[in-house]
């Protein structure tokens, strides 16, 4: 019943980098929008431009972006703007970036909707670029912004260069606000690879080896020879090995080392760990070593988890372990803590957002085992049997996962490591689902109590209260049913571990099956007691029938696994 939270990043560029009062008024519009977190404000005096970064759930991000565009349009007069950076509007570019739980295509749809709203409600013409482009050539931001602000009178007058939304003559309003380019692009990671050298030349050589653009093809000597010019007048280039990357070498006085500084413009094409390994390879070919990695700005959680799983697989190790352990493998494998301590809670987008939500101390799963037991023992009715059942299911999944991990790493079974690693990952996913249901079951009970607390003075209030109670009761029956369904998936894992896993841990597989049965039976009782309070008796009967079926199957599955466990022990 739980779903991955959708998170979007927005990185608007405003054409004001000198007046802090104006910048603050714009960012205040973002900060006052519920559900978003302002991460960074980076003004530039020479460019007269400020880059702002904020994140949140899609609807909240779109609303914050709209408010910021509106405020920028009120405060910035483009007819008086001068700066070193290309620009065409008070809000110049406005990209939406998928972070988690949402695709680039979905962000593109949001970007087009936002562009149309800006054009309709604020009357600022908008072009769409990158994934949101409505014309193929407009995927390139430079095409949309060609000629910059000064070219707008002519561009707005011709259909082929007119904006995608809000086409209108270049009047006093457009003269003040300019046009905005709204789009959707993948997450960009800025990263520096530390080298055991002070040579900028050597760092540049590695950068040219790997960056997509590559290096010029030269006549004769590949370093000092004259660049070869193609028939179209451009310099002929030898592409680098990493697509979707830009890179350069430089020397950092602060650290006393040279670095390969890279922008990864599409992490789906070139993930961070692939870039790291390739820079290491090219450095080694030139007699150098990569000593560590410095991430500039933020990264999505999946970037580090993908890296951790990649390096575990290279070690023939299972990734069916807690998320924190996978992150630690990524940190150590790429040397993210080489120059300074790496704190994932300050560098990972999702964790920064979590810090704004309810403290983890409010969740049952954040408690120690003793505190969880003590909280259950108190006279308050929650947490109760439903949460405890989900917890037992999580422990069953954890035991099955443990046996899979022990089997994957068992001496002499090296050729089977991947077989068990896959099972361990499946078990870890079940554990995580069941742990979420621990808190969800208590939340279901709280919903019932909230519904009973609704006013009941009038007939309308009584009707609304009765409907709310029924809805909450149905939810309170559905949550333990979900616990049953998830706990049922623990049995196949424990059965396989009893049959094929490390025989020294077969008893653990058996205990896992016992815990899974307890989870199913306990959650089933909660389904039944909540279903008995439903007025929709047909719906209640269906819930009870499904629960009875799974309870019977759980007893059979547990008995079969325990027989297998005894067979292995008695061999």
Give the proportion of residues in helices: 40-55%
- Main sheet attributes: strand count, strand direction, barrel closure: 7 strands, mixed
Strand content: 5-15%
Number of helices: 19
Arithmetic mean of pLDDT: 93
User: Uncertain spans, ≥5 residues at pLDDT below 50?
Assistant: none
Structural class: alpha+beta
Number of strands: 13
**Radius of gyration, taken over Cα atoms and rounded to an integer in Å:** 29 Å
Distance between the termini: 42 Å
Can you tell me about this structure?
The protein is built from 19 helices and 13 strands. The chain has 571 residues and is of the alpha+beta class. The strands form three sheets. Strands 1, 2, 3, 4, 5, 6 and 7 form a seven-stranded mixed sheet that branches. The chain has a four-stranded antiparallel sheet with strand order 11-12-8-13. A two-stranded antiparallel ribbon has the order 9-10. α16 runs parallel beside α19 and α18 (506-531) runs antiparallel to α19.
Topology:
Elements: E1 7-10, E2 13-14, H1 20-31, E3 36-44, E4 49-56, H2 58-75, E5 91-100, H3 104-122, E6 126-130, H4 141-144, H5 152-156, H6 172-177, E7 180-184, E8 189-195, H7 200-210, E9 215-216, E10 237-238, E11 245-252, E12 257-264, H8 272-285, E13 290-296, H9 301-314, H10 323-334, H11 344-347, H12 349-354, H13 369-377, H14 385-408, H15 417-452, H16 459-488, H17 490-500, H18 506-531, H19 537-569
Parallel strand pairs: 5-7, 6-7
Antiparallel strand pairs: 1-4, 1-5, 2-4, 2-5, 3-4, 8-12, 8-13, 9-10, 11-12
